[in-house]
Queue: 2 jobs
Job 1
Amino acid sequence: MSEFIPHTPEDQRAMLQAIGLRSIEELFADIPDEILKRYAPLGLKPLSELEVKQLLTQIASENLDPTRYVSFLGGGVYDHYIPSVVSHLMLRSEFFTSYTPYQAEASQGTLTWMFEFQTMICELMGMDVANASMYDGGSALAEAMLMARNITEKKRFLVARSLHPHYRQIINTYAWAAGLELIEIPYDSNGQLDKGSLKAHVTNELGGALVQTPNFFGIIEDLSNLKSTLGEALLCVSVHPISLGILRPPGEFGADIVVGEGQVLGNAPNFGGPLLGLFACKQAHLRKMPGRISGRTTDAQGRVGYILTLQAREQHIRRAKATSNICTNQALCAFAATLYLGLLGKRGLRRLAELITQKAHYLAYQIQSLRGFSLKWPKAPFFNEFAVQTPIPPAKLLERLRDRGYLGGLDLEPYGHKRTLLIAVTEKRTREELDGLVAALKEVSR
Amino acid sequence: MSEFIPHTPEDQRAMLQAIGLRSIEELFADIPDEILKRYAPLGLKPLSELEVKQLLTQIASENLDPTRYVSFLGGGVYDHYIPSVVSHLMLRSEFFTSYTPYQAEASQGTLTWMFEFQTMICELMGMDVANASMYDGGSALAEAMLMARNITEKKRFLVARSLHPHYRQIINTYAWAAGLELIEIPYDSNGQLDKGSLKAHVTNELGGALVQTPNFFGIIEDLSNLKSTLGEALLCVSVHPISLGILRPPGEFGADIVVGEGQVLGNAPNFGGPLLGLFACKQAHLRKMPGRISGRTTDAQGRVGYILTLQAREQHIRRAKATSNICTNQALCAFAATLYLGLLGKRGLRRLAELITQKAHYLAYQIQSLRGFSLKWPKAPFFNEFAVQTPIPPAKLLERLRDRGYLGGLDLEPYGHKRTLLIAVTEKRTREELDGLVAALKEVSR
Amino acid sequence: MRPGETIFDRGAPGRYGLSLPEPDLPSRPIEELIPKELLRRDDPELPEVSQIELVRHYTALAHINFGVDTGPYPLGSCTMKYNPRISEETARLPQFALSHPWQGETLSQGNLRLMYELGELLKKIAGLSEISLQPAAGAHGEFLGMLLIKRYFEDQGELARRRKILLPDSAHGTNPASAHIAGFEVIEIPSDARGMVDLEALRKNVDESVAGIMLTVPNTLGLFEEDILDITELIHEAGGFCYFDGANLNSIVGRARPGDFGVDIVHFNLHKTFSTPHGGGGPGAGPVAVGEKLAPYLPVPLVKQQDGRFYLEYDRPKSVGRLHAFYGNFAVLVRAYTYIRMLGDEGLRRVSENAVLNANYLKERLKPFYKLPYDRLCKHEVVFSGKGLAEGIHTLDIAKRLIDYGFHPPTVYFPLIVPEALMIEPTETVSKEELDALIDAFIQIVCEAKEHPELLKTAPHTTLVGRLDDVKAARQPVLRIPKAATRSLRSRPSSARSSYPPSEGPPAPSRPPSSLL
Amino acid sequence: MRPGETIFDRGAPGRYGLSLPEPDLPSRPIEELIPKELLRRDDPELPEVSQIELVRHYTALAHINFGVDTGPYPLGSCTMKYNPRISEETARLPQFALSHPWQGETLSQGNLRLMYELGELLKKIAGLSEISLQPAAGAHGEFLGMLLIKRYFEDQGELARRRKILLPDSAHGTNPASAHIAGFEVIEIPSDARGMVDLEALRKNVDESVAGIMLTVPNTLGLFEEDILDITELIHEAGGFCYFDGANLNSIVGRARPGDFGVDIVHFNLHKTFSTPHGGGGPGAGPVAVGEKLAPYLPVPLVKQQDGRFYLEYDRPKSVGRLHAFYGNFAVLVRAYTYIRMLGDEGLRRVSENAVLNANYLKERLKPFYKLPYDRLCKHEVVFSGKGLAEGIHTLDIAKRLIDYGFHPPTVYFPLIVPEALMIEPTETVSKEELDALIDAFIQIVCEAKEHPELLKTAPHTTLVGRLDDVKAARQPVLRIPKAATRSLRSRPSSARSSYPPSEGPPAPSRPPSSLL
Ligand SMILES: Cc1ncc(COP(=O)(O)O)c(C=O)c1O
Ligand SMILES: Cc1ncc(COP(=O)(O)O)c(C=O)c1O
């Protein structure tokens, strides 16, 4: 481990002397003795790099070997292809070893991509302004709720029951913390938001509504008229950013705040973290938005540059009155997203979204043709993910599929949907693999 | 594939117009029609990056999975640990996307590490000057022979039979090409160079002798008195660079030219290529040395910088009379070696060499204690590799070991050594793995 | 590259940087699959660049970005230490990186083991008994800490009364912000002449309305809170909880445990103490360790072990719920685990020892030149004031001038209780030579401030852009490339001017050869 | 960083950059294992640096190195095209990278398949029937080609007579050098007014002493050898072989095959045409394809297939033997295979199409400004002369001045038959905007040459060091850090001056804010 600490004993001696101390211990003379004495070591011997690599390789091998399974898992995190250029540029250490660009002139690299990222997210979502990231899609939606509370000063919020169940848990936690009242809006027989129910809950007391599209069941919500129904209350929408390659963006439906899980944009699943919270809003709400923002400005000679701006919203200036407590965010994941969207570009994002749509629909069609299987909500439009009614309990199905090398999807029984399996498709799944899953489903459901 | 070629049809149109041509075809009007017509496509459709990644992953998986085998293979290529810093810095594209630093002022990065590399190689080998790399250890030895011919103007060379058999083949090929005469010097009952035989062949006609240490059997040669025996003829030695962490360098024995296989210095085995030819010589022979050399100089303001120097030796200046035809060499592998030696440093290289020596000797001791096994040359000193006499044919042994997850070494039967197995150890092999091999050997040789 | 150039300035319509597979199955028009009114009409204006254009753009941007790898980065409170490359390798092992949060416990034993073992180590480092790895950053951990206190008092039926969180005026901004979002009233306690919590003032504020106190130890002045045991006792006696902001743990790791201070809740900043890269502003990780009293309230799931099998514990009826969609920033946890395992006990001690040595050395050497408001033994960082160097010279000028010397500036204007604060944290990974060079630069700047103040006021001079106008940025915010410009920019032919050297154009004929770059 | 700074200037005695495992087994003193007289007494003077010092040093060095990722790199004859990042990923797949050359055919079916399939593709691209992937670079391939010819004539008993290799005076230096090492006599054939092989001169040299001819098509002037069919026929009639130097294959790939020119031997430069990175000067790969007549002489082993199983063929009694310790630069082959599979037929065509388009566009636009000795349709590159721009201005001055504009200079002073040659190869991966910017810079330099010639003569001005003295370097060669200095340098305290910005020190007070960097 000494490779990380340059000082030699000579260096230490010389420095102690300069300070006027005789020993390292004296550097800690201000810590009460009883505290120092109580210290108990961890019982860990140092490891060399080779040993730690062997150890971590061993631990990793106690997981499944991802190369041996074909995965149809989704439910908020998706296994998209990560372009080689993204991986490569993420390793440029001028980016990953820097911190929040407090000193703009020495951080133009970070500030420039942040500005690009904000532009791309606005374009995707059809919104006016975006920040440079939140912790994840779930907490971003919770922060949207807090922001809506701050804007409207109302404490009641409608929450779609078709939200990701974990997002709902996060929202419950944040709402409890902030003393907000939540009303759940059910979904209809098509798995879509029950707009009638929503309408019935719109009152003067309402701060906003939280909706997700595609929702947890993969179903694309129709956002039209929602904003007008809500009136003064804010429409907060959570999206799958790749779906916006083909889906009409929430901004066009009048959404006030749009958030989303950006992991899919060039970030590995990583067992669910780090994720990437996307966050955008209307211009009018800008000064209530949480998070870092990079803004364009100039120097004394008129040269264009970027700088963290509107910091008066933030905790280090506004302290208890800040729009949020967020400080360290998910910058590097946002950088990956910037690279990803830059590589795919205007044409590529649409093509990717189309490709995924085709694959998902092909698979859905094949599966629902199997005896005993059907689509749970056959009339509902979907993008990359769909719920299937299974002839036997999904848990059993999944176990048998696993033996055949498939991670067949997410069992929705624990979420109250008997014999329902949620299946996700990405561009990585080849036709052969889709057909393979269908064949395996046939076999294992006999 | 169009991601690699920026031009759009509009770009092409505008450019053709500027040139005054109407079509792309006209750009190829200078190629005889009959040639163009004979062209037959490969029958390959373009693949996207995702598809090619899937394809190559598939092909790779048709090899053994290296994580599932414990390897004791050596014989010229060794599986040493590659420090994370080496892998990381190798990916800095300012280095790997550049070429030979013809334009010094824009290539100070490359020229500086070359200069450092030359210094490190000289230090390791105890020599005066080194070049910036050759193709591999084998061809470097062949080039040493050609260089010795150019220096001495003699055509006869002694070649130790204990050289790596492939190196001997390369030397045969080069010698035949250059019209040189080779005399093989046998090894004695200790597997070491038969110095008596060598002495007997020293005449006025001799250009030099080619020796390897540790030799192909892993045995450390005693180079003392060799140079005085050779007289005017040049002593050319091939070394394992890590062994020089503890072994007396050939320079101290008066070697004229020292070469070696540098793969072990931070480069992966890569199925045997790219390798890294190391090459150093005495100051007196400098102007006959092949390969690129970086030299220190200054600019008009006296600032220090580096530049390719002594180019008058090289093919692009001297053409047919050049010291060698080498142009593109193994620069990036030499960069890895520079990083590797820089990281290990003065203290680390010795510690590494000691660690390997201890492990190899532990294993050798354990194996020769097994019934039916013995060391082939029990009195010969060795570093990382040793030959074992086996109770049953190695081919059979190896096959059975493979089933148990061991690549047990190299079968020397095809090289004329009945029931002989060459076993190599690196720092990556844990005691558990060494003991495992011993236990497995015991089992499979019953 | 030109100043201000973005990826939208490169490329041309029709170009792209990544090819995609052709559909390998029967396709139907999208309109037949998804109702037309749900489909997007106009494509988003994303860049249209070939791969080489994109790579060159971000390579050029990298060259104008300062990271730890570029040079010393003594950004106070941020612990900008060297980020081991081995951690980048281990975190990218495919069985970690490609593992899916829904793949189930059986297929995730490696992940769970790593989380479990990291949790055990962090608990020992904190001296506390339970842990959640879920928070994604320090502030997220603070928020969780506040929620735990809140749930506890709710559980005890005391919530209505326990509405105050105390914190020193030197606290980091996230502390009051976190307490506030959790619904608490924030009371700032002034610091005394020593730079520590004013015990008298604290006593005055401690009563049954106090839910807890948030402390940073050593505090943001880099000073060890000498009365820490008295403070924690005082709070406990009043029935409140003590929260420990772990941002400054680097100074005591391996030799003192917050739990031994009487602390009930600790958040770690793995991206500080345990050297996971800061990534331009994240991702980090902010695990929270607690004592037994608060353990039942930790979020779901926790990672547990039984008979060598690791599992996720969801059945925690008193839990505050969830703060993250899954289990926290797992890939960051892998890096921190790698680092701690390499250090071992000996390494942890050497971290704090050298971090504190460096800060004190710098303090002593700079003391004659800069105002030191609190001249005491410091821990891992030291706070000077930029005041009084020369007429009209501000801390910002000093910071910007340091950039010209090849250093990242320290944290400035924080903590708020030091006017014109310069908060310097060398970390243990700076070599003595580098530290001396940094000190020399600071001293040189003192001379410049007197003799050539304009040199400071107009600094930096060696960067692609000079000092940027933050007032303009905030007054007329331009926060994205204007819609119209995303397209039109691309027709400009000059956009592809190469980035090497990073100049706007060739030097004018009259300019002498320059040594820059 | 300071100009000239090396890793030996950093660090201090006792530091190191990588920890090693403690021995996990019983150790004995080394002297008991290896005789003392074989052991080294003094340690080699290697650097003594911590990891961060090393990483900062090479990060700083990267910043003063120009690569394809930095900007346009029109180095003629070198095909400095974009290097796809995907190839870096595929080449690093552990089953490739960690595979051992002795692991046997059974465990290497993937490697062998890749080599076999790449070989098949290259054979088709060459239009020839057999291939060896063993040569490590172009020149290595040339040497092999010469050996094949030599072995053939030896086999035929004609070696004594067949002692000449012909080549045009425009040939690359490796050609005569390779022929010479193989023991042939090298005869240079002059080029004619078209810049092509002077057919008359060639005829005069063709007789039964000719073993073969080495041709580069298009030649190093970038011109397609129009009489190629006549030339190959002439040589064949005399019983000789035609060798094709594939360095310039990028201009015809996907539309014309050397085999169809009547060529017998082709070497590829995979690091040129097939975009494997140049690595600062290698590794590359120089596979050699041949027709049936020479196939028996190829080196051992070749990769073969039978019934879907791949194997190495060693039993080749007529083989010239071996040129490489194993099978060539395998990891380079993986990259080339990746690239070719991504391109497919359509991509290969687009490569040559756009490479040639770019060269001709540049030629037409620069023609009014620079002397163009051979004004014809060119292929992938064009050769101008730097002569006559202005009194005392040389090609070197133009090249160095281009650096100030952010471009890598073209190849200079080659081919030798053009005085003051400027050999410009844009490649197909340069965008039109970048190409226009390059052209504009070239034109701007013409103006500067007349108006401010000193600006060229003292260029470059924007790099860390100015024009380096090559005469001094060669006269008093300093080729390593002097032994004594490796140690003493390390005690200097100034060595750690950070590298950002890459300046020698702060700007002098009088210096106005600069836009560089
Ligand atoms: C003292 C202190 N507390 C809390 C935080 C917040 O931590 P994070 O940025 O990880 O949310 C910081 C970070 O800068 C800090 O310095
Ligand atoms: C025309 C020509 N022939 C041969 C070579 C030699 O190829 P290599 O450098 O791969 O040995 C080169 C390389 O620069 C070349 O340009």
Note: Residues 61 and 367 of chain A are 33 Å apart (CA to CA).
Job 2
Amino acid sequence: MKTFYGVSLPNPLMLGTAQYPSPAILAEAFRASNASVATVSLRREKGAGHDFWRLIQDLGVRVLPNTAGCHTVKEAVTTAQMAREVFETNWIKLEVIGHTDTLQPDPFALVEAAQILAEDGFEVFPYTTDDLVVAERLVEAGCQVLMPWGAPIGSGLGLSNVYALRTLRAHFPDIPLVIDAGLGLPSQAAAAMEMGYDGILLNTAVAKAGDPPAMARAFALAIEAGALAHGADPMEPRDMAAPSTPVVGKAWLA
Amino acid sequence: MKTFYGVSLPNPLMLGTAQYPSPAILAEAFRASNASVATVSLRREKGAGHDFWRLIQDLGVRVLPNTAGCHTVKEAVTTAQMAREVFETNWIKLEVIGHTDTLQPDPFALVEAAQILAEDGFEVFPYTTDDLVVAERLVEAGCQVLMPWGAPIGSGLGLSNVYALRTLRAHFPDIPLVIDAGLGLPSQAAAAMEMGYDGILLNTAVAKAGDPPAMARAFALAIEAGALAHGADPMEPRDMAAPSTPVVGKAWLA
Amino acid sequence: MKTFYGVSLPNPLMLGTAQYPSPAILAEAFRASNASVATVSLRREKGAGHDFWRLIQDLGVRVLPNTAGCHTVKEAVTTAQMAREVFETNWIKLEVIGHTDTLQPDPFALVEAAQILAEDGFEVFPYTTDDLVVAERLVEAGCQVLMPWGAPIGSGLGLSNVYALRTLRAHFPDIPLVIDAGLGLPSQAAAAMEMGYDGILLNTAVAKAGDPPAMARAFALAIEAGALAHGADPMEPRDMAAPSTPVVGKAWLA
Amino acid sequence: MKTFYGVSLPNPLMLGTAQYPSPAILAEAFRASNASVATVSLRREKGAGHDFWRLIQDLGVRVLPNTAGCHTVKEAVTTAQMAREVFETNWIKLEVIGHTDTLQPDPFALVEAAQILAEDGFEVFPYTTDDLVVAERLVEAGCQVLMPWGAPIGSGLGLSNVYALRTLRAHFPDIPLVIDAGLGLPSQAAAAMEMGYDGILLNTAVAKAGDPPAMARAFALAIEAGALAHGADPMEPRDMAAPSTPVVGKAWLA
Amino acid sequence: MKIILNGEPRDVAVQTLAALVDDAGFSERKIATAVNGDFVPAPARQDIELSEGDRIEIVSPMQGG
Amino acid sequence: MKIILNGEPRDVAVQTLAALVDDAGFSERKIATAVNGDFVPAPARQDIELSEGDRIEIVSPMQGG
Amino acid sequence: MKIILNGEPRDVAVQTLAALVDDAGFSERKIATAVNGDFVPAPARQDIELSEGDRIEIVSPMQGG
Amino acid sequence: MKIILNGEPRDVAVQTLAALVDDAGFSERKIATAVNGDFVPAPARQDIELSEGDRIEIVSPMQGG
């Protein structure tokens, strides 16, 4: 099983920590799903930071700080540096937003920032598109994990371009691939894992569900299901039907 | 949670017993998935019947005999009667095949046979299409469960007509609906459960997988995931993106 | 090219006559599309019938009366008989509605009515589902044309079950197949014709467009396009890319 | 109607000139489709160039030279310069291939080359992905036309990411958008035009069809159909059915 | 005599369906008729005696999809 | 007497269905029976006299989907 | 001296970034700092002399997706 | 002098690119030229002195997609 910068995760679900009705429900969602990674951010200290940090530490999971909301290389790099000091980890979920409506990555700034951070010793988890060439540049820049989007952040649309996601999987057999953003339902996460993806990063679909812990658990189960199915060598779909019950030995009852 | 003729099933997965590499693997698939129902058939006795029956009994699950391969009302009714005597259950998975290439149900013979069997005290699980009017006739005929196909038996194509399946669900809020036949991957089963379906009946996708027990478990997990998600009130998908990480308080690092 | 009860249509588009902003726009839509058939109905005479009939006659197209709104065999048969007298044609678009929400055909009543009408000398155009077995019954009942729905009447959803529609085409190579109802856009009509369908029957998508004559013409062109493509033996889609411009002879400009 | 660098095209179909069974069939395909633009390339002179050029000139269409097969900025720029001299046009279809399997554009080299060529007075038609940010960079670099791919060149897969293509259209209301590569069937071209695209560039789907002239004409008709439909304000699809034939005045025939 | 013509109660003096059609001024119109749910061809209208409570339908061409 | 047992022609001496089941050695088995397409419940087997050309089906549990 | 702290104008007496952090009562908190868009590691804060108009950012852990 | 013309080694006597084009019999043809990866416009060909090992490309119109 692939490792994330040498770390093997007990559970391929990475869960965001924003938008929950309450801190208690956030914690319950992590317990219910056994998510192994929590994404966090840095914001201007207004007093709440301390308690939130205590909450996250109590989850007993790995922390993956993000550079959410950064639109330039410099912003992203400085934010990453601050995150490394605060969260004491080299892991960074690198977001460099290229467009406000789609919140899609800016491939140009992303590759540049990834290069700077990788050289500076960071272990970069780039939030990227499903573009194969951009993915290759990120790997050349030093990324050992890729996190293509399924659809725009918070849209819940699922996997917009299955063809491109398959292509990525085929071209990077040894790089851990995580679907980051855009999923709305567990069946979509299962489908990604069935395609051979190595993990799923979620936030809105869980936090904005009516029952976040139940939805978190639903995603965790679907992810496990998809991974199992991928390993179990599924049947090939075919256009014609074929009886499951044996035909031989059927009684003649006309 | 809905009951199947008064019986509540601990697990919404119904698993077929045909096409496995070996009886041992069949048994392992049931253990791995905790499937609650096993479908079986009747064939001309050649000596193997006894051992197979012992195997099924050891699974400790409910048995759902089928009328697989029957093309006429009479064949189906006689087969059902023989099944009731042998398996000592009123449950019958009613198949009346209308076409050899698609193995699709014959709506006309199906409704007629369902009526006869229901009047004769059978508890009919009709393998039907996704046709709303046929479904209504089956309910009028006395069926308290409906089992629409997802796609042709053994095709592994998944849910061919999501629109029709949604319509069925909307029109029969109180009738247990089970997707019977056509699924190839767990994500498809999860999607059906997310739509509010009450169970999944499978055979080929599990038996013909490279690792049937793993695939059986994968389906069981996906089904649980889909059911949980359906109950957890999923977010509405939307076309525009929306940031998960809060925008307020972002540092100004230009 | 297939004929409709011995009549070869110059244009595979059949157009409805309801819901247009005005009679003038209706007429313009027929001119713009060269539709070869107009569907009409019978309603209680309130004085408007005469002018409408004049309008239709001036279109110079074949008339296909329908039994729209009929829910029983008797209603449909009586309506067909009245239509034959008024419109002086044996053609009848047989609709027997099975459900008010979906306006889907009632397969049972449909087959029964088709049989009665065929024996009475009608040339039946049955509005049916995409169910193969029902289709076979209709052919046995004497129908020499089949008109499966694409989606519910007036929904504009397009082709809900491409798999089933392909299956119908494959099983009835010699029977004219017309997609009746559910289309919203010309690309959907083109897709049906590319699959080898023989005609398209439309109403709402044209009448409710902002510019009905333009939309009518758009459908006519798309239908012609799809038919041409079907006859031109399209390339097989493939997963890998292949250069169109020759690679040999490329200059070396490194 | 939008212009392509000040030129309004009588027909939004741009047709490739490669892979035809014969020059005669190529010419016939152009006549049958009234394509308004022919894409051409430059290859090492082996004697055939002259006759081919004569053939193209006789088509009486605009010529759009490409930089097919170029993998670097320098190759693409030099090829464009040679093309401008030979074909005496500032138009250039800029291809900078980023990956041999998918033949997808290299977004980085593409933007760089576009900038150089635009500054040098070229009118650049960039073959790009459906990435919004890359598209914005191309426009900033001076491109007044964008040509996103539908799917990999020669795959015939159609529109792999409808969501992304819609997003592009929404963000560039005033820039001519042409689907370049990946289409296999006319219905796909119609769908792109229905979304508001301004043109279609094709080669393999026509040249590799059994009857290229018929397929070329089929695409031309489908494109016209899609454009008409886009302008005719299509109905909104809806989940419920709605009768087309009026309900009022229906006879009571029970 | 009270009948129901196209869904509306009517008190009529005429005896036959043909007379009713005349009376309603439809004789020249492009119409078809049904009595109590059964089709009555034009030639047969004069032979159809109306009875109390008959449901008469007189229909004509209309828009259809 | 010639019958057809599970699709194969058989020449049998027995008179009843019950005897045939015994004779075939199925009496202890988990089986069900049909004669000429009609179900025959276990208790009724002894009352069923076989006739020339009867189609007898004896079935038992088997894999099914 | 006028600076901008987390986006708000502040008039401060302190000389160094370290002092500002103390002054703001953040010294015990889990925070990171940046001056005019550049990261300043904790140990370096005491060496950073503030100047008129400096943009200081002091951030701490927060929810993220 | 040895050069590479359209990917093939050639031993040529001519001095200029223009002469090479003539020599190859392309002067009347619809062609464009590049030397060592750089475009050489037609008018400039006569000023381009060839040197040992130069990579010369002479291209003409061809099918394209």
Note: Residues 7 and 39 of chain E are 16 Å apart (CA to CA).
